[in-house]
């Protein structure tokens, strides 16, 4: 059975980005619990910003789980990517992500690789960048095994990366790593609306590898605020037997609370 989650950002520099709740972990947990979410997804500057003991207490007190943890601050704040021309920067990027994996692993939550995958360009040709990306994902997936969590790879739209933009490209990337890679694909409906010819067929293509979903409309507003056909999308999510989180990575429109409320109402409408 699918579960609901909502994003909580602790990165003030990213305010205005696609995260619903912005007033800290305690306030985020309170809102999530009040509205009936199953979990939160946390975007932080790094593990040093999160007191794990405090987070554990907050999750227990509000009867919530941790759905996933983001790694994007590695690029946003530290300028690190896994496909940099600099070996030193690539290694530093992997070490940053490993610390995030450790933080999430304590709570059974996987770490998400999104913006830190980077781009290919004149300094790093496409084939070389994809090789760096695959090798890093393989290493990070292996590292996550000790915590019994998967590593979560998110392909992004063409404006945010030029490496993998569609589900079929992510499947092809992970297939180069064999069958024991411990990596799942994050399917984000916002990115899919831009890149996929048919969102439902994309879900079928990635059925065996999709392990996390960002539940958001085409304009990055909460589901119901755009034009994604959720009748068809919810049907295919059920058809493929997906039983992970539907996590709201959406802009807080028109307000944080209203965005959270619209999300849980849409979740209950299509999956309740």
Question: Could you explain how this protein is built, in words?
Answer:
- This protein is of the alpha/beta class and 272 residues long.
- The chain has a single domain (3-271), classed as TIM Barrel (Alpha-Beta Barrel).
- It contains 10 helices and 8 strands.
- The protein has helices at residues 25-35, 52-61, 73-76, 87-105, 126-144, 167-175, 189-195, 199-205, 230-239, 256-271; strands at residues 3-9, 39-43, 65-70, 110-113, 151-154, 183-188, 210-214, 245-248.
- An 8-stranded parallel beta barrel has the order 1-2-3-4-5-6-7-8, surrounded by 6 helices.
- α2 (52-61) links the parallel β2 (39-43) and β3 (65-70).
- α4 (87-105) packs parallel to α5 and α8 (199-205) packs parallel to α9 (230-239).
- The protein is globular.
- The mean pLDDT is 97.
């Amino acid at each position: 059975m699918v579960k609901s989650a909502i994003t909580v950002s602790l990165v003030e520099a990213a305010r205005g980005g696609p995260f619903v709740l912005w007033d800290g972990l305690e306030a985020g947990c309170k809102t999530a619990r009040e509205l009936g979410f199953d979990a939160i997804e946390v975007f932080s500057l790094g593990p040093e910003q999160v007191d794990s003991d405090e987070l554990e207490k907050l999750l227990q007190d509000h009867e919530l789980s941790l759905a996933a943890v983001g790694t994007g601050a590695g690029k946003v704040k530290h300028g690190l990517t896994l496909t940099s021309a600099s070996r030193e920067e690539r290694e530093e990027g992997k070490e940053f992500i490993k610390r995030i994996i450790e933080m999430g692993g304590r709570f059974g939550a996987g770490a998400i690789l999104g913006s830190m995958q980077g781009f290919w360009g004149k300094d790093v040709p496409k084939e070389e960048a994809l090789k760096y990306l695959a090798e890093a994902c393989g290493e990070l997936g292996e590292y996550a095994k000790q915590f019994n969590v998967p590593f979560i790879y998110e392909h992004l739209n063409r404006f945010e990366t030029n490496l993998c933009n569609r589900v079929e490209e992510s499947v092809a990337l992970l297939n180069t790593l064999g069958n024991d890679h411990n990596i799942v694909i994050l399917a984000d409906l916002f990115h899919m609306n831009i890149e996929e010819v048919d969102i439902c067929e994309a879900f079928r293509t990635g059925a065996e590898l999709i392990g996390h979903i960002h539940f958001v409309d085409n304009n990055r507003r909460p589901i119901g605020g755009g034009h994604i056909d959720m009748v068809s999308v919810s049907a295919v999510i059920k058809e493929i037997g997906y039983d992970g989180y539907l996590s709201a990575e959406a802009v807080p429109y028109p307000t944080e609370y209203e965005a959270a409320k619209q999300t849980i109402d849409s979740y209950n409408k299509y999956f309740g």
